Structures are given as C-alpha cells and as structure tokens.
Amino acid sequence: MSDPQTAADREQYERWVDEQIGPRQVGQRYDHGYEDSTYEVLAIERGPRATWPVWRIKVRDQAGERWHCTGWDPRWDRVVATTAPAPEGSS
Predict the structure, then answer these.
(1) Number of domains comprising the chain
(2) Cα(67)–Cα(12) distance, rounded to whole angstroms?
(3) Phi-psi region of 76 (alpha: psi -120 to 50; beta: other; left: phi over 0)
C-alpha cells in the first residue's frame, strides 16, 4: 500500500496496518506457530514510510534483533505472554 494522500486513503491505510500488526504490542511475546519461533516486539513503526516496507516491526528472537513486515496471521500466530505493569511499590 502506497503513501496515503487523502483522508479516505489514510483511513484505509490505518485499517490495513491494524490488520497487519494484529494484537502485537511492544514488550509482548508472540509465536509464529513453528518450532523456535517465539519473539518479543521491541518497536512498531506504523508508517507510512517513504520506502518499502511502509510499516515494520522490530523484534528480538533467538537469532537477535531485526526489523520485519510480516503481517499477523491468526491461523498460525499466537500471543505467548503479555506483561502487566508491576504493582506500585514492588521491586
């Protein structure tokens, strides 16, 4: 999807990016559905960016840190762990 020019294009772009990102959030862990495929989301750039990919996610997995733009696929992808803020006064 190219750089949105009109308000309608921007709305369509935002819906499309929402579908691609799925439930992923920074600091959470996910699994692609195959062996050793868990990863933690470090950053999400919703874009639009001037170059491909127009949106991207930075992750950390067993191979290290990298950027990718693989869309969420509910047939395979799943949430592994979510983290809640620590209670106030805990350490």
Answers:
(1) 1
(2) 24
(3) alpha
pLDDT tens, position by position, 1-45: 555 688 988 999 999 999 999 999 999 999 988 877 899 999 999
Asked whether residue 89 is assigned to any structural domain, the reply reads no
Half-sphere exposure for 22 (CA within 13 Å, toward CB): 19
Q: Are 36 and 30 in contact (CB under 8 A)?
A: no
Residues of the domain holding 50: 7-76
> How far is 2 from 36, CA to CA, in rounded Å?
33
CA distance 84 to 71: 25
Q: Assess if residue 63 is contained within a domain.
A: yes
pLDDT in tens, 43-78: 999 998 888 889 999 999 999 999 999 999 999 999
Report yes or no on 53 lying in a domain.
Answer: yes
Cα 63 to Cα 40: distance, rounded to the nearest angstrom: 12
